[in-house]
Amino acid sequence: MKTITNLYQTNRKIWAIVPAAGSGRRFSKTELKQYQIIQNKTVLAHTIDRLNELPLAGYVLAIGEQDHYAQTLALKNKHLSHFCLGGNERVDSVLNALSYLEQFAQPDDFVFVHDAARPCVTRECLVNLLNTAINLNSNAILAIPVRDTLKRVDQQHNIVKTVNRDQLWQAQTPQISTFSILKTAIETALNDGVMITDEASALEHSNHTVQVVMGRSDNIKITYPDDLELAKLILQSQIMH
């Protein structure tokens, strides 16, 4: 089993943030994707299980104001769980969680941010990501090279051109940084009116290097209802192996 390099020599803790306040409109108008059931457990519980493969100091779930369900779940290492109010957008939820963490985390502590609806991330990917951040002293994200031919289309759905994919990667989560760097980068980007779709985009805006770490194609994000069936198959396959 792959081990984590020299974390304990640095006295740096690992925290995880899970933004889980989204409405999930693409999945359903009435049901939240993170609370769908796979193998008698919610998607969110599976996700938390995976993150706890790391020696976390704690994890923060940023949840919606009307969400009275998350805190009732039997989450792994529940004693390490924290909850805060999420925001309108993912970036607002992450910033709220970072502000909440300020009372616990040191500036150089590592912070993972991971989608609530990515329950299939493997321990090996998590450890590779963390080791990269430690060894290169860098921000890092999981990603995979784009495999399919990409087309740019116009509003009438006509192809405008084929996009060269040679240097294109598909971003995944978790994405890792240090507490102070990430919080400052997000605040700066928001103040500058920049569109922030993930943590890496905020770090890029502040000219921080972000290392890409090879992920896996089965680290899917449940976005549409048929993704749930695929996630069920992936989780079953991972358990068998």
TrEMBL record:
CDD domains: CDP-ME_synthetase. Pfam families: IspD. Coiled coil: none annotated. The record marks R165, K221 as: Positions MEP for the nucleophilic attack. The record marks R26, K33 as: Transition state stabilizer. One of its GO terms (biological process) is isopentenyl diphosphate biosynthetic process, methylerythritol 4-phosphate pathway. SUPFAM superfamilies: Nucleotide-diphospho-sugar transferases. Its EC number is 2.7.7.60. It is an enzyme of class 2 (transferase). InterPro entries: IspD (IPR001228), IspD/TarI (IPR034683), IspD/TarI_cytidylyltransf_bact (IPR050088), Nucleotide-diphossugar_trans (IPR029044). One of its GO terms (molecular function) is 2-C-methyl-D-erythritol 4-phosphate cytidylyltransferase activity. It catalyses: 2-C-methyl-D-erythritol 4-phosphate + CTP + H(+) = 4-CDP-2-C-methyl-D-erythritol + diphosphate. It comes from the Bacteria. Transmembrane segments: none annotated. Pathway: Isoprenoid biosynthesis; isopentenyl diphosphate biosynthesis via DXP pathway; isopentenyl diphosphate from 1-deoxy-D-xylulose 5-phosphate: step 2/6. Keywords: Isoprene biosynthesis, Nucleotidyltransferase, Transferase. Catalyzes the formation of 4-diphosphocytidyl-2-C-methyl-D-erythritol from CTP and 2-C-methyl-D-erythritol 4-phosphate (MEP). HAMAP family: IspD. Belongs to the IspD/TarI cytidylyltransferase family. IspD subfamily. This is 2-C-methyl-D-erythritol 4-phosphate cytidylyltransferase. It comes from Acinetobacter bereziniae LMG 1003 = CIP 70.12. The gene is ispD.
